[in-house]
Task: inverse folding
């Protein structure tokens, strides 16, 4: 049983970010049902961690918990779909055929139809998908994303750039 102060703090810190949490979980797991499970588990983890200290960036904190919960869930339920590594060259070698010359990203993404864009995002490796979703869909700052994924801001910027280049390459090859 949780105290009323914990419930109140949960309502203030976690609940305002549930839509973003679900959106991230949906992109990482690939379907609604699994995303709901991940968000529920993440909420339980967040509830247990509320009293552990000061939470300076609640949104990033919640999304970090969702991200970690999603990767734990994926590793347990779909072990062949998760590849976690800090080796950027390895990630790029696996994810890219050829680096293309990026055209204006917003113009190409805006011109693509919604289902093609969603398919292209879903096809990105997790390390690229999470940053594109957090930045371009949820609107988090580089610093908030860095806090959520526990990586330097430069890594966030690099992954975001690479994710956008891969989307441009994939969506540009459709035409």
Result:
């Amino acid at each position: 049983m949780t105290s009323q102060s914990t419930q109140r703090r949960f309502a203030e810190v976690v609940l305002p970010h549930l839509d973003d949490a679900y959106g991230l979980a949906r992109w990482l797991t690939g379907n609604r049902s699994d995303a709901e499970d991940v968000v529920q588990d993440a909420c339980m983890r967040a509830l247990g961690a509320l009293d552990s200290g000061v939470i300076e960036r609640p949104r990033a904190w919640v999304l970090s918990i969702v991200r970690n919960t999603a990767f734990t869930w994926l590793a347990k339920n779909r072990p062949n779909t998760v590849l976690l590594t800090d080796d950027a060259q390895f990630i790029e070698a696996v994810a890219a055929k050829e680096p293309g010359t990026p055209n204006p990203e917003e113009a190409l993404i805006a011109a693509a139809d919604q289902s093609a864009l969603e398919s292209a995002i879903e096809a990105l490796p997790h390390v690229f998908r999470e940053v594109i979703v957090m930045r371009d869909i949820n609107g988090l700052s580089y610093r908030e994303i860095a806090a959520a994924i526990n990586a330097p801001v430069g890594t966030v910027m690099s992954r975001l750039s690479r994710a956008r280049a891969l989307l441009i390459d994939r969506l540009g090859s459709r035409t």
